[in-house]
Write a structure and sequence with these properties.
With 151 residues, the chain is α+β, with helices and mostly antiparallel strands. It has five helices and nine strands. The strands form two sheets. Strands 1-2-3-4-5-9-6 form a seven-stranded mixed β-sheet, with helices on both faces. A two-stranded antiparallel sheet has the order 7-8. The longest helix has 13 residues, at 75-87. The two termini are 26 Å apart.
Length: 151
């Protein structure tokens, strides 16, 4: 049975999983202390995500990760739909930023996000070493948005 818990204390215990989605610990340290961390369990831990406050209308999904052996089984999608419901009474919009990789962009679009804007050279300017996803070097940050009140 799937359970999702909001984690209040000792968020760094999930660092191994968070590093799957954001490979540089000092970047995680920028949002983890003030972000809301959620953990999805199905017997054992499967996925985590972190959501931060941007302004009165907008929150941002900063990190979502599922252990590799549990990917493509619906856990990430379940967690995203949970946070949509969790935040729909607090915020109007949710942002998520990611690299320009077709598989990840397709996943977010299938969850209801639409492309919003990009930050040029985000990954090359902010990470110590080149970042790759699906053998594609990440350069620009692609932001997608979701209206939490839309059906």
């Amino acid at each position: 049975m799937i359970q999702i818990q909001k984690i209040i204390d000792n968020k760094k215990q999930f660092l191994d999983l968070l590093l799957l989605a954001d490979e540089q610990e000092n970047m995680i340290d920028l949002y983890l202390p003030h972000g809301d961390l959620f953990a999805l369990y199905d017997n054992d831990l499967k996925s985590v995500c972190v959501v931060t406050h941007i302004d009165n209308d907008t929150c941002e999904l900063k990190n979502i990760a599922t252990y590799p052996q549990y990917q493509s089984k619906g856990y990430g999608r379940t967690l995203i739909h949970f946070i949509f419901d969790y935040y729909k009474h607090t915020y109007t919009n949710m942002l998520v930023g990611t690299g320009e990789t077709p598989r990840i962009l397709s996943f977010y679009k299938s969850c209801g996000f639409t492309i919003s804007h990009r930050i040029s050279n985000f990954f090359t300017d902010n990470y110590d070493q080149p970042m790759f996803e699906d053998n594609i070097q990440l350069i620009d940050m692609i932001y997608l948005t979701k209206n939490l009140h839309a059906k």
